[in-house]
């Protein structure tokens, strides 16, 4: 039989109590019933050229991952399945499973059409390349409204 460390048992009991309390509220909130829903932990980094969002998704079938961008919000959704084996009795189950969704408000100034995602070793990595910022430029001014007249850059009236 599996045993646990007493301190971990207390924490698990507190987590279970919270799960049951939140679980009782979930039907009113329109979320899953039963166990509390789960969401993968995330890290967000920024470099000179891109933003990188990483989510821990061990046990999630990559085929169930869905990434959408709508009005500046990136949503990542997926499903971690739980399939008990026939003839086995579960003595301890701590890992949460089921459908998840996380949404992130994106900063302005990234190239929405160049977003790329890959997964390896239970880590989903989403790359959001920054868009090229508009650079200052000089505008030629035509003299006398004539298209054939010479233009003067930066001239002021």
UniProtKB/TrEMBL annotation:
Belongs to the small heat shock protein (HSP20) family. Residues 33-144 form the SHSP domain. It comes from Roseisolibacter agri. It comes from the Bacteria. This is Heat-shock protein. It holds the Pfam family HSP20. InterPro entries: A-crystallin/Hsp20_dom (IPR002068), HSP20-like_chaperone (IPR008978), Small_HSP (IPR031107).
């Amino acid at each position: 039989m599996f045993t646990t460390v007493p301190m971990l048992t207390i924490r698990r009991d507190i987590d279970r109590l919270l799960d049951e309390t939140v679980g009782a509220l979930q039907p009113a909130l329109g979320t899953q019933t039963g166990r509390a829903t789960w969401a993968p932990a995330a890290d967000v980094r920024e470099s000179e050229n891109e933003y990188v969002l990483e989510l821990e998704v061990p046990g999630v079938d990559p085929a169930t991952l869905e990434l959408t961008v709508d009005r500046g919000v990136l949503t990542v959704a997926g499903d971690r399945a739980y399939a008990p084996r026939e003839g086995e009795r579960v003595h301890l189950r701590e890992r949460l499973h089921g459908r998840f969704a996380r949404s992130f408000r994106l900063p302005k100034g990234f190239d929405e059409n160049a977003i790329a995602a890959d997964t390896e070793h239970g880590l989903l990595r989403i790359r959001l390349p920054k868009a090229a910022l508009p650079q200052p430029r000089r505008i030629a001014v035509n003299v006398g409204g004539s298209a054939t007249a010479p233009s003067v850059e930066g001239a002021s009236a």
